[in-house]
Amino acid sequence: MTVDIVTIFPAMVQAPLAAGIVGRAIERGTLDVKVRDLRDFTTDRHRVVDDVPYGGGPGMVLKPDPFFRALDAIETDRVGPLTVILTSPQGKRFTQVDAQRLSGQPHLVLLCGRYEGFDDRIRQRVTDEISIGDYVLSGGELAALVVVDAVARLVPGVVGDEQSVAEDSFSRGLLDFPQFTRPPEIACRGGAGNAGSATASAERVLKVPDVLLSGNHAEIRRWRKRQAVARTLERRPDLLDGAVLDEEEKQILRELQDGRSAELQKGQARNHGRD
Ligand code: SAM
After folding, report:
1. What is the pLDDT at residue 88?
2. Which of 55, 73, 225, 242 lies most in the core, judged by the most C-beta atoms within 10 Å?
3. Architecture of domain 209-274
4. Which of 102, 74, 52 is nearest to 5 (CA)?
């Protein structure tokens, strides 16, 4: 996959791209990422990329012409159709489904805004407008890095163990199961689990669930499925509507939902008794 990132702060994206899984994929050539300085596409001596807003008001607006010239230059080196992504708090909220769709595209271009944002005419050259969440960042660089990282993980050959990507949270509409590693027991003082208790400073021993130490792979697989379904039901029940569950997971979900409604009914009966 080829990715172009257009920004006025190339250094802000270059360093993070050089690290970790994405950095290794770039080194191996699985990903080709070019960071383009928007100022290289200006034509004036001062390399100006912004101007005051028509109609007045605070702040500066990114001019359309440097972006158009940058896109023209990228067009000439394109490797298949361009997917041009405008980073914007006004865009569609980015999800794993978007990451999966974008991972199948040959060439992504991410445009990073700054100041009050872009001259609106830039939208004429854009295929996707993406927000990474309902908050406002100072610039599109962090948003572009989030999108590149999430998409790159899904490009075949980028993450060594593709099974781990398949099991990640959201991949089938389920959150991931809890993970543990050595040591099997660890002492712990304080923390959220103890917050507010009279023994907040008492030391507890935190153990890895026995099933994970049992060596029984069928039991481990079932425990993990149950944990993934239970976590999703508890934390993100909204995901379950679109989740792709196998028969075993559907059965686990029914059991958990039955258990919940039995608990709810018991609670209601207790409250009724008190009335
Ligand atoms: N005035 C703009 C508005 O309210 O829509 C916000 C401009 S923001 C300060 C500057 C740039 O940061 C945006 O053009 C965009 O590139 C980026 N940005 C800010 N928040 C973002 C978000 N939640 N997701 C993606 N990009 C964001």
Report:
1. 98
2. 225
3. Orthogonal Bundle (1.10)
4. 74
